[in-house]
Design brief:
2 domains, Rossmann fold, 8 helices, six-stranded mixed beta sheet, alpha/beta, Hypothetical Protein Tm841, Chain: A,domain 3, about 325 residues
Length: about 325
């Protein structure tokens, strides 16, 4: 199967997409030093800054969430690749402040390596920064060691609660603790129906037969927990939500955030049908869905499938979820 995409020279993909993105939202974000997306209006330096890093090709993530009440900056790597540590430390220098920086890293080998190297450099330069690692993928098993669990779309609602806490003027330790509380009470499971292609080469990242699906697929096509025959929307939703509810240990009377994140080629129609089944199931257990997101937040080009995400919320986290934000892809007024 050939690749059909509206692109120019494959070598210029990241540069062109960032130029286009920052130009489309020039009232909110700016491109600094070709790979750093920053807020247009910098946050008051007396408040904690939020920084993240990750490869391009997952739009709108991660740079779509740079803005008031969310991220201060996002360091972008090439397609599906982590940015190098020098770019990351450059962003840290730009955000340097006494209040400190919360640095959110998704658990993928390249991201973690760049993140750790930048943290070492920051320490030598006296930059006050704390790193938090997201690892909410439960495909390897909810109790498997953190290093085996990937960071998936859960980073985005985490930016929201941490960003709101920072905007409220909380200290770095407080912002970190809130982010970590959210981090420890979230879980994601992905399902794939059809492969993505690497936009620079046209290579399919993995293969799946016409009548197969795979639950637990990683963002870049890493193997999941097993292939099965295609299931209906309701069957898929129930199979996934059951595991997620167990993973966050939600029980009757608890409040949760439920997100269906499209991987790139799954329609809104399909996502709403899946959401409907998942919410019905949860309500049947006496658990309340108090915040929802349905749409494309972190995609993998034209991969067919979605990530289902659940977070258990207490009153503090719920309030932060609904706090004002003004990023291109998440606005709360």
């Amino acid at each position: 199967m050939g690749m059909k995409k509206f692109i120019n020279n494959p070598d210029n993909l990241t540069a062109e997409l960032l130029e286009g993105y920052c130009s489309a939202y020039s009232n909110k974000v700016q491109l600094v030093s070709d790979k750093i997306v920053m807020r247009l209006k910098p946050k008051d330096k007396s408040k904690v800054a939020l920084l993240t890093l990750g490869g391009a090709g997952h739009e709108p993530a991660l740079s779509g969430f740079v803005g008031e009440g969310m991220l201060d900056a996002s360091v972008v790597g090439d397609i599906f690749a982590a940015p190098g540590a020098p770019k990351v430390i450059e962003a840290m220098r730009l955000l340097k402040r006494d209040a400190g920086i919360l640095f959110v890293v998704l658990n993928h080998a390249g991201d973690v390596m760049s993140g750790n190297m930048a943290m070492e450099m920051a320490k030598q330069e006296g930059i006050n920064v704390k790193m938090i690692l997201t690892h909410e993928d439960i495909a390897p098993g909810a109790d498997s060691p953190i290093e085996n669990r990937r960071g998936l779309a859960g980073c985005i609602p985490l930016y929201k609660v941490a960003g709101a806490a920072a905007e409220a003027g909380k200290s770095l330790d407080e912002v970190y603790n809130i982010a970590e509380k959210f981090n420890n009470n979230m879980a994601t499971l992905a399902v794939a129906l059809k492969p993505a292609t690497h936009p620079q080469s046209g290579q399919e990242i993995f293969t799946l037969a016409e009548d197969e699906m795979e639950i637990g697929m990683g963002q870049h096509g890493e193997a999941g927990t097993g292939r099965s025959q295609m299931l209906s929307a309701d069957e898929t939703a129930v199979k996934m939500i059951t595991q997620l509810i167990m993973a966050v240990k939600a029980k009757k009377g608890d409040k949760i955030h439920l997100m269906i994140n499209g991987a790139g080629a799954t329609t809104q129609m399909e996502m709403f049908i899946v959401y409907r089944a998942a919410k019905k199931y949860v309500q049947g257990l006496g658990i309340k869905v108090v915040h929802s997101l349905v749409g494309e937040y972190l995609t993998v080009q034209e991969m067919g499938g979605f990530q289902m995400f659940v977070a258990k919320l207490d009153d503090e986290l719920l309030k932060l979820m609904y706090a004002p934000a003004d990023a291109p892809y998440w606005t709360v007024r």
